[in-house]
Amino acid sequence: MIDAHPSTPPAPGTQSTAPVDPWAARRDELAGLLVLTARGDRDAFGRLYQLSSPTLFAMLRRLLGRQSWAEEILQECFVSIWQHASRYDRDRSAPMTWMAAIARNAALDLLRRRDAGEAPLDDEAAAQRPDERPLPLEALQAGLEARRVRECMQALPAPQQQGLALAFFHGMSHSEVAEQLDQPLGTVKSWVRRGLLALKACLQGTSPPEART
Amino acid sequence: MRLRDEDLIDRLAADYVLGTMRGRARARFERHVADDARVRGAVADWQERLLPLASSLPEEAPPPAVWTAIEGRLFGVVKQSAPAASPIRRPGMATAARWWERLALWQSVAAFATVAAIAFGVALLRQGPPTAGDIRVALLQDATGQAGVALRLERATDGSDVLVARVLRRPEAMGPDRVIELWAVPPAGAPRSLGVVQAGADAVRLPVRDASALLAAAALAASIEPPGGSPTGAPTGPVVYQGALYPI
Hints:
Oligomer: heterodimer
Largest sheet of chain A: none
Helix content of chain A: 55-70%
């Protein structure tokens, strides 16, 4: 075994044996860690990383389609979390939602710069992107924990589900989804729009807003 | 400028959070988010609706180098064990970390998988003839922990060392004419090829010239290569499986 063992917090993944939904089960713990992080507590920040980075990394890897980009954006994301933790308001949003929003915004910004030609899409990325993509329905079915949104998602007609999943999990634009599914752009836009509206209605119908996690 | 229409705000916020809003529209909308509390509220609502979907993905531990880099940037902590050039580079820089640098670091966290891997590897590999020397096994896994290749290093009766490789699962993205090439990743330096599992074969016996180098390897890996193996002597295709040797 090499001695490159990282210092204090990581070895992420060594702790949890059973899949845990960090959105729900650890909401209070994560919120508390964010409050401590805002006060400059490095140990709390390390623990926060340990608990939340495996979910965020999984999301970023699919979104960006490339391991090294996901690592870079995860790094950006936690630097940002350390710097802006004082803005987190536990009464307004779940901690994982807040952190996932930071991660997704950074990732989508990178995709936007790539679209604009400001970030290179090199050969490795071009070669890996299609390979690494699981089918969106498989991704959806893989160990779903966020039950309510899953149930609502599964209630959607398959094309709407697929459109939403390709956009959400794989960071595809409308036109990329259209290309992937071999459908006209207008059709895909309408699937995504109707899917979002149906999802909203379903989520609102099943529980009051204050019960959100 | 303010967005007036509630439905429009809701629609744009949904597109923004879903990620389908791209390009200049995204940058423009972010100004509304900054300026307008109603827009912020609509975005927050959509985040609460959609982002929990991300928890449906199986967790994936990031490589330890990411945390090292975060500590380095925020607290100026420098790890002695880290190579002089950090394997983490900024997105704008085209050069990706050489995969084997990341791999060696990865290995230290992947150790948690060893117990299961050894048990599984032993069960799979305890089929050959009895051997004279130490036996080592490795189970090479993909990023989700699925076993792809089982390896056994054994000493043949004539004293030569042999690496037995058995393909348990072909990578999904692998073309029919592609081969799996096996690599030993030393603690420092470039990976060395161990040999190729030909297309269509599910097991192979590879002669090992320098078993001590193999035992000293920080990690073993498998990549997808063109027929005959990598034309360059270094992996050219995606690295699909990795693991380390353990004594049994």
